Amino acid sequence: MKEKRLHLSKSSIAPVGVASPKMHALLAVGLATAAVLLCLSPPVEAAQRQPVYINKCCRVGEYYDDTQQLCVAGGIAKWVPKVFLPAKNQIYTDVGNAPVHMKFLENKRPEGCKVTAYTTDQILLMGNGSLFLSQKHTLVSSPEYCVDEKVALVCARDNGMDSLQAPEKTSSVWRCCGPNLAYDRLNQTCAKLDQTHVSYGAKIVTSAHVDLSFGFPACKEHVIAGNFKPENLREDTGSVTIDSGKILASNEYCLEQALDGKAVYVFTCREHVQPISVPVENTDVRFALYAAGLLVSVIFLGATLATGYLVTSQHHVLHWRCQTHYVACLLIGDLFLAIVQLSGETITGPACTMIGKSLLLFLAVRYLCFLSS
């Protein structure tokens, strides 16, 4: 797919605010979603304290190492992920341990499916044994996952939601708020949509090759880098091209629809988006005169250096040495200034940085030589 690059003006970069309050709001929405989904699951009678069996990926005293994809000795005693108790509407207070009705089956993993690893900060055990995936906003039944000290292995199956599960996924795209949520730009927060809303149930990305997850990129402050255009999405990598022409990787941005349903925003970290300088038309005759004057100065400074070297009787004088260094630094500084003036905006990247630092160095040394003379 061809990438279409557009221009991003400075005014289109809108600050969103720090990530912490937004993440707290998303956690609250996630817990509310989990509670609603849990209501649809078979209830567990608290009075009867029916045991709930949960698969532990490795044996007690071991933990699952996702990099090696095997069990490693050295697991800690309090390894259980956070447990949410819907009846009390709170997290189980003894963090690291499980309620007494939860029983763990050691060294048992889901079978007959391809598993995906999730870190423990992306999951939440529910009181009835289901597992809530914050990244997918869905509940998984106990036979389809196993948990351990650092990860949970979950069957990658179609959950019927907005994640667009497909047999083969080539990339991942993140949606900022969650299913049936939209971004309220006025209040700078995620808002839940009514079923009558025009965007209720709408899918931002409809490609069968893209796996959709939920959450903002990890950074302190997010900004809106422009509006999302489907033709700017690379389905093979998940990267997107924003209006300025900059390409953001899959983990550097997220997408969310506007509350009015008229646009889809591209959110990214502030450090990934810098205001674009307004190009200056290089048609003024003064720009040419500046460059010509600098080049003439370089010629005369070169002649001054040559003349000084021809007068050998002055080479032993300290003042001559300081003056020679002063003229040499001034010549190089003026030469770099002339190059910058003639090249305009064509010099970018490391070359621009090198010329800028060289200018600063030689002009600063020239001033020191002037003081010494």
Overview in brief:
The protein is 26% helix and 24% strand. It has helices spanning 19-39, 285-310, 318-343, 350-372; strands at residues 14-18, 52-55, 62-65, 70-73, 83-85, 90-91, 102-105, 115-119, 123-126, 131-133, 138-140, 145-147, 151-155, 171-175, 181-184, 189-192, 210-214, 221-227, 240-241, 247-248, 253-257, 264-269. The N and C termini lie far apart (64 Å).
Describe the structure.
- There is one protein chain.
- The chain is α+β, with helices and mostly antiparallel strands.
- The chain has 3 domains: 52-155, Beta Complex (Methuselah ectodomain, domain 2); 171-272, Methuselah ectodomain, domain 2, CATH 2.170.180; 283-372.
- The chain has 4 helices and 22 strands.
- The protein has a 5-stranded mixed sheet with strand order 6-5-9-10-11, covered by helices on one side. The chain has a 4-stranded antiparallel sheet with strand order 1-18-22-21.
- Strand 10 and strand 11 form a beta hairpin.
- Helix 2 (285-310) runs antiparallel to helix 3 (318-343) and helix 3 (318-343) runs antiparallel to helix 4 (350-372).
- Residues 1-21, 39-47 and 159-167 have low confidence and may be disordered.
Summarize the helices and strands and which ones pair or pack.
Layout: E1 14-18, H1 19-39, E2 52-55, E3 62-65, E4 70-73, E5 83-85, E6 90-91, E7 102-105, E8 115-119, E9 123-126, E10 131-133, E11 138-140, E12 145-147, E13 151-155, E14 171-175, E15 181-184, E16 189-192, E17 210-214, E18 221-227, E19 240-241, E20 247-248, E21 253-257, E22 264-269, H2 285-310, H3 318-343, H4 350-372
